[in-house]
Amino acid sequence: MKQIFLTPLFLLFFLLASCNFGPNSGRGFSLPEGNVDNGRTAFVELECNACHTVGDIEHIAGREGHDIDIKLGGQVTSLKTYGDLLTSVINPSYKINRRYARADTASEGSSMEMAAYNEVMTVQQLVDLVTYLESNYELVHPTRNEYARYRVEGS
Fold first, then answer.
1. How many structural domains compose the chain?
2. pLDDT by residue (tens digit) across 31-67?
3. CA-to-CA distance for 36 and 27, rounded, in angstroms?
């Protein structure tokens, strides 16, 4: 009985895993290796620290009265992949953290007026910047809280 249930499940998994997602897939796309030090320089040169704090780079005064400081890097419990960071830079409105969405722009699904750097930065700056950002994240396992301990013992 167990085999009858698992066989179609495994078959479905392998079919989905082997799918070619068409001409718009990211399959085959690869960027060159970046440089952490050059990425740090790009972070400052592009004035990313007007809105973001990362590592030891200090926050500078915000633009046009916007005083936001979005912390990047540090310890996280879910992996920030290279692709996630790359997408956040070139398409910042793709995934917006609710804490930083404004009421007048959230309905349109845009970020808090993050400038479009796609026409400003070079590909090398982008690669270096993402490599630098990636180096500032540390994946940690979440700690079990007191409630979880009692729940396991009481089961």
1. 1
2. 889 999 999 999 999 999 888 899 889 888 755 556 7
3. 25
Q: Which candidate, 142, 127, 146, places its Cα nearest to that of 35?
A: 127
Here the CATH number for the domain that contains residue 61 is 1.10.760
Does residue 72 sit within a domain? yes
Residue 25 lies in a domain: no
On whether residue 138 sits in a domain, the answer given is yes
pTM of the model: 0.67
What is the span of the domain harbouring residue 79? 36-142
Q: Which of 75, 83, 59 is nearest to 131 (CA)?
A: 83
pLDDT tens readout for residues 136-147: 999 888 777 776
8 within some domain: no
To which residue do tokens 């009481």 refer?
154
